[in-house]
Specification:
Elements: H1 2-11, H2 16-22, H3 42-50, H4 53-56, E1 64-72, E2 77-85, E3 91-95, H5 103-115, E4 122-126, H6 143-170, E5 177-180, E6 183-186, E7 197-198, H7 199-204, H8 206-209, E8 213-221, E9 227-237, E10 244-254, H9 261-280, E11 311-316, H10 337-350, H11 361-371
Parallel strand pairs: 3-4, 10-11
Antiparallel strand pairs: 1-9, 2-3, 2-8, 5-6, 6-7, 9-10
Helix pairs in contact: 2-3, 5-6, 9-10
Length: 372
């Protein structure tokens, strides 16, 4: 689809981003798979891309530039989490989603924000299926959203317990107690001559007010929020060998809200490299009997650091209304657009399109020989 849009833009002599902006899905658009989109960030990503210095820069001689939009629907599914408070107020998160891209740090950040305590007081641990509640598959499109939502709800459970303990300590009704900046305080207008109680204060006296503080949450997370990206890449083609070199790559993506921006960029960069590998080299090769001939990484060419330029990232934030902190899944969207962006860039260099991927040296060289 993105290659076709590129051809249309070329034929009507219109900037490829402008063409996409005129036709971009937005809040209320009916998705091809049925539902109406809630707030989404495609238009915002396209606008940011349109004014990005990398897009406004002039291409060098012999350089092709290709643009493409990526999309992933994202998922929620089931997650569980526990939050435990030690006597000194230290917070321990136990969750069941392996850390594949910095998710533990994100869990700690959301817990710190919810509880109103310092990030430094929180540790997150990943338990196996015997040590923690059930969590569905760990993936780039659900972990921070769904397991993060479970962590937030477990922290809210802790807050509810702390308000009950404070009410008991102060001889107040629980609905007369608020939680502000990590402390239980009387609500405005409540005539109570008491001092605020911090999380550590309440944990220290937990043995006298009901026992250890342990918050739990298990859920089937709904509304993960679709994610969109805009990618463009500059490439050259060695006409003697057919090798495509990636000179520059820029990724703009709606992350909902970037809980840990550096890790979000890492997800975007990792996805871009995966997509570029798929676009340029990665291919299963079978003989006539159906036996795979490149069954190992010596013969299945994946990108390494020396193959890639710095993947430049710009995070766009259009909060997902289904999550208290606006989270969207980030990790799967970035792999979608690089294939079409690379194909469009190679077409820009050669003046014609090669319709098969990967655009590996043998395939590109064969095409060049045919065109001559």
């Amino acid at each position: 689809m993105e290659c076709t849009i590129a051809e249309i833009a070329r034929k009507i002599e219109m900037d490829p981003l402008d063409l996409r902006l005129k036709n971009a899905a937005d809040e209320g658009t009916v998705a091809p798979y049925g539902p109406k989109f809630p707030p989404i960030g495609l238009v915002e990503c396209l606008k940011e891309a349109r004014k990005h210095p990398n897009y406004l820069s002039q291409k060098g001689e012999g350089v092709g530039r290709g643009v493409a939009v990526g999309f992933w629907f994202n998922i929620g599914m089931q997650s569980s989490a526990e939050v435990r408070i030690a006597e000194n107020g230290a917070v321990t998160i136990m969750e069941g989603s392996p850390d594949i891209g910095g998710s533990r740090a994100s869990m700690c950040l959301m817990a710190a924000e919810t509880l109103g305590v310092s990030y430094d007081t929180i540790n997150a641990h990943v338990g196996d299926t015997e040590a923690t509640g059930f969590c569905n598959v760990t993936g780039g499109s659900r972990t921070t959203f769904a397991t993060g939502l479970a962590v937030v709800q477990a922290c809210e459970d802790i807050i509810a317990q702390c308000k009950e303990r404070a009410a008991l300590t102060w001889d107040l009704d629980v609905d007369q107690v608020d939680w502000e900046e990590g402390k239980a305080v009387p609500k405005p207008g409540v005539n109570a001559d008491v001092q605020p109680l911090s999380l550590a204060d309440i944990a220290r006296s937990a043995g006298r007010t009901g026992g250890p503080l342990l918050g739990r949450a298990s859920l089937n997370a709904q509304g993960p929020g679709a994610s969109f990206s805009v990618n463009w890449t500059d490439v050259t083609v060695d006409r003697d060998t057919g090798k495509v070199d990636v000179l520059a790559f820029t990724a703009v993506q709606d992350a909902g809200r970037a809980i840990h921006p550096a890790y979000v960029e890492g997800q975007m960069q990792g996805g871009a490299v995966q997509g570029l590998g798929w676009a340029l080299n990665e291919e299963y090769i079978y003989d006539q009997k159906g036996v795979m001939e490149n069954a190992g990484f010596l013969d299945y060419r994946v990108p390494v650091a020396s193959d890639m330029p710095m993947i430049e990232c710009q995070i766009v934030e259009v909060p997902n209304p289904s999550h208290p902190y606006g989270v969207r899944g980030v990790g799967e969207t970035p792999i979608v657009a690089p294939l079409a962006a690379t194909s469009n860039a190679v077409r820009d260099v050669l003046g014609y399109r090669i319709n098969d991927l990967p655009l590996s040296p043998p395939r590109v060289l064969a095409s060049l020989d045919e065109s001559n």
